[in-house]
From TrEMBL:
Lipid bilayer topology: Multi-pass membrane protein
Protein name: MFS transporter
UniProt cross-references to InterPro entries, sorted A to Z: MFS, MFS_trans_sf, MFS_Transporter
The keyword Transcription appears for this protein: no
Species: Paractinoplanes aksuensis
Keywords: Membrane, Transmembrane, Transmembrane helix
Any Pfam family hit: MFS_1
Ranges annotated as spanning the membrane: 16-34, 46-68, 80-100, 146-167, 173-192, 217-239, 251-269, 335-353, 365-386
Superkingdom to which the source organism belongs: Bacteria
Subcellular localization(s) per the UniProt record: Membrane
Amino acid sequence: MTATELDRPRLDRARVAVGFTFATNGLAYAGWLARAPAVRDGLDLSAAGFGLLLLCLSAAAIAAIPLAGPLVQRFGPARAVLLGSSSMVIGLSGLATGTLLGSVPLAGLGLVLVGMGNSTWDVAMNVEGADVERRLGRTIMPRFHAGFSLGTVVGAAFSAVAAAAGLPIWAQLYLTAALAAAVTAPTVRHFLPYHPLPAGQKPAMSVRRAWREPRTIMIGLVMLGFGFTEGTANDWLAIGLVDGYGAGDTVGAVAFGVFVTAMTLGRLFGGYAIERWGRVVTLRVTAASAVLGLVLVVAEIGVPVAVAGALLWGAGASLGFPIGMSSAADDPAKAAIRVSVAGSIGYGAFLAGPPLIGLLAEHLGVLRAMLCVFGALAIGLIASGATRPLPQAKE
């Protein structure tokens, strides 16, 4: 079905549905990250041990994401989102049960399912979002990612309230899983119609071929650098405030909330910057903001300064992933595979980040361990030129 065959109301419904899908994914993913210290304490883990536990999440995400592209290409984004969300719901329930029982293996298994489900969910909703963006002829991918960030804001706010009220983390996880299951199924029904390839017809792009494309690899490196920048804050910012500044769990959740709020605002309004200055310049400006924010967080001047740093850090990390996803999806016929390959590289940040920060934190402390984010940002900036639109694609 071509763009002209879709009426505007149908396209607008798909746009709203994609936004809700991103938001639900953000809420489900961040519903426990803001209270990561409570999970760590409930399982009685050290910083290094908790980093290894997070490795279950990251490794599963890395392993699953190369398979997500062919899955989306074969069954369509709607069915892939349903499959991924189901895995994530089961995984969150497993993490809740593991925390309740103090079982690290059960919590690790839950995180494996969360990681696998999130990868499939992520690729599928980005492919659908890129399709909607192309048909509308506007730069709206950052706004879809703002939906994800808005979901994390809601998740962080709920976590802060839950921590202040003394709600056990396992109870919060069960509630989050139930909400994700209730929202996702009706939402994906409004995705754009999907027409699989006829039997016997080969797809326009294979995974092997995509791995040989320099542009796709460089886009993946952009996502790696900015993903590491984002993921470090997701996993360790709250713990950094608690351990590095002696703040309480509530303050840590608030700082994380400030970070994801800044990311939300950056993504809501980032499309205007991209349309005016282009993808490359926008990436460089946001990287500068992330650098300044990181400096303020690790400087140990005081909690208010660290919270201000979280604000700048969030704004700086906001556009790397949406720009990378849009760039990888410039060609609609090859979007699913290229998004999955670039995403595989980008999610390497979430594989390397948790254990690296955890191991460094054992010797240097969490705040100083965060300094390795500078190297990740350098990688993203070096590769940023690859995000320029393909000749046939509009910015």
